[in-house]
Amino acid sequence: MVGSNEAPKESAITDGRVARSAAQQEAIQMALIDLVVDGNFTPTAVDVAEKTGINRRTVFRHFSNIEALYAKISVKIRELAFADMPETIAPGPWESRIEQIVVRRRVVFEALLNSLEFMIVNRHRSPYVRSSYQDILAESDAYLKSALQGTVDQRNNRFKALCTLFSPANWRTLRMEHDLSADQAQKILITHALALYPNPDHKQS
Hints:
With 205 residues, this protein is mainly α. It is built from 9 helices and no strands. Helix 5 packs across helix 9 (182-196) and helix 7 (157-165) runs antiparallel to helix 9 (182-196). The protein is elongated and about 75 Å long. The N and C termini lie far apart (80 Å). The mean pLDDT is 83.
């Protein structure tokens, strides 16, 4: 009978360890994302230990599979990328519709700015980061295609140029490489978009 009592205790201990490990891993993942958002593009195990208060040895153990951590970070960043960006553009003058798209992208890309930089810095080290970065670029193009469906011809190079102009990569370049303010970057996108498309190709009914 003693053995039957010990088995549930051992099971409870094991379950507790598994739950504690899962909680620690989640805390480490969130700490990594917070560090990236705060501008630390190459966070270390020491950085995470200091932020979470988790024992350094424990953090290093989780960091032994850095690819798995990168994968989870990338998935979370990708989930956040366009979560709050509605596809519908309010009717009105063409200039107003272009401005709506740019303003919405500004909000999303500003929130993602440091995360995008993290992806740029680490995409050659991790296939997960590279894949997620490419997914965000593809989602950016898909959003634009949906937002402008029925108003512009999407089969030519002019539309490809618009996708490049409105891409998260270009926003990052304007903000971080050219050191422009968000207002300046927004004005540049609107000006160049209207230069590419002074008028829509098709009138909406």
